[in-house]
Write a structure and sequence with these properties.
The complex is a heterodimer. By secondary structure, chain A is mainly β. Chain A has no helices and twelve strands. Helices cover 0% and strands 51% of the residues of chain A. Chain A is globular, with a radius of gyration of 14 Å. Classes of the chains: A mainly beta, B mainly beta. Chains A and B meet through strand 5, strand 6, strand 10 and strand 11 of A and strand 5, strand 9 and strand 10 of B.
Amino acid sequence: AQKITQTQPGMFVQEKEAVTLDCTYDTSDQSYGLFWYKQPSSGEMIFLIYQGSYDEQNATEGRYSLNFQKARKSANLVISASQLGDSAMYFCAMREIQDSNYQLIWGAGTKLIIKP
Amino acid sequence: ETGVTQTPRHLVMGMTNKKSLKCEQHLGHNAMYWYKQSAKKPLELMFVYSLEERVENNSVPSRFSPECPNSSHLFLHLHTLQPEDSALYLCASSQARQGLDYEQYFGPGTRLTVT
């Protein structure tokens, strides 16, 4: 079974609109961390935001926020006021405390295209 | 140079060739990673080095051979590859420690095509 599921292979969004990218995860750990990365066409993965499983508040970083719903095991990324430069692949990833090597488990990604 | 650099950015090689991918991190991190990224698939972790020792080898075929001579450099030696090995190979580094919240920093990748 997949541990990280991103159900949207691709999305088109009008510039300046907010966009929500879905991510659901599966873990039996009580302690885990969730990450979002952006990958532009240049190829480099860029870290965006982190949410810990015990964090009571949703993480925010500038225009990025994470809608963390623990009971539903979802960690959706919200981008406010989208810009053309937000066009990229977006990946959700998880790290579990039971993994002694603290590896990241990755989703398949969502391709976001911002339309002018 | 800053961050994580990878060379070459693009590589085309025949199935009988031997080549090496190079990664260098300028962040003072203590862990380095090789990932394979194929189209429409999640990133596949290939190798992890922590403090220059390999701590993870995720059932990668022996035609891929990693080398970590020091904490700043990581190589992936390639020989007798197959066409299905064509992919983007990403290197990453991190300051690995106990806990969950440290991020990995990635290089721009090497786009490998095996003919």
